[in-house]
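Quick one:
INPUT:
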């Protein structure tokens, strides 16, 4: 039996894992989800005071409250930042880190660091004007039809304070943790392009490819579960 902790990406919430959880439970595993502060069912807490540290503490609180040891901590997209920070604070509770088409930071980098300059400028403009990042059209995640509509109804604005927040962590300790990157490349989300190159250039990674879009938990749940169980 393995404990999985599944952390959603920007604009999403715990709801996005709905198609993944039953398959993990049926295999006899435990799986935990949460919505990060300010999104999902926590959208009413959206505030300029929310930072990357807030989201890291959200995850650490679950690890501690459930008394997890050696769990598989999965982070989708932006949550690659979050799981890296959580693992740095609670290393003994983590058995493997799984970056699901996610940001893979270096020490001192922010979520914004790997984005093209044009993306950085536009997102900083929105944050300056609105204090948050409005959700995009889910079509950019490779979703169509009913899946696109289902996700569009549920996305929430992302707290603006997490975008340029740098993450400090012990890279040597992080490199000693087993790590998997799941590359969702059909279609490939452009803002993850640098991460795909990074993990293939750095020793120690297990790289799994799934021919689906960025929201694999929605568009390819069976393949994602198989990758997690592997």
């Amino acid at each position: 039996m393995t404990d999985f902790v599944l952390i959603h990406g920007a604009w999403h919430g715990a709801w996005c894992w709905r198609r993944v959880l039953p398959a993990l439970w049926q295999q006899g595993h435990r799986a935990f989800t949460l919505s990060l502060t300010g999104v999902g069912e926590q959208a009413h807490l959206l505030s300029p005071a929310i930072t990357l540290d807030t989201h890291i503490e959200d995850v650490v609180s679950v690890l501690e409250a459930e008394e997890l040891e050696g769990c598989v901590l999965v982070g989708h997209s932006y949550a690659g930042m979050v799981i890296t920070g959580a693992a740095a604070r609670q290393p003994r509770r983590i058995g493997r880190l799984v970056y699901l088409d996610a940001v893979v930071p270096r020490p001192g980098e922010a979520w914004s660091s790997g984005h093209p300059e044009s993306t950085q400028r536009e997102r900083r403009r929105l944050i300056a004007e609105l204090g948050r990042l409005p959700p995009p059209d889910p079509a950019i995640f490779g979703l169509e039809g009913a899946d696109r509509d289902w996700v569009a109804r549920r996305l929430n604005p992302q707290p603006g304070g997490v975008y340029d927040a740098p993450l400090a962590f012990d890279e040597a300790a992080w490199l000693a943790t087993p790590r998997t990157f799941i590359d969702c490349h059909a279609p490939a989300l452009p803002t993850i392009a640098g991460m795909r190159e990074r993990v293939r250039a750095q020793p120690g990674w297990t790289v799994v490819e799934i021919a689906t879009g960025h929201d694999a938990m929605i568009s390819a749940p069976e393949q994602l579960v198989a990758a997690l169980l592997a």
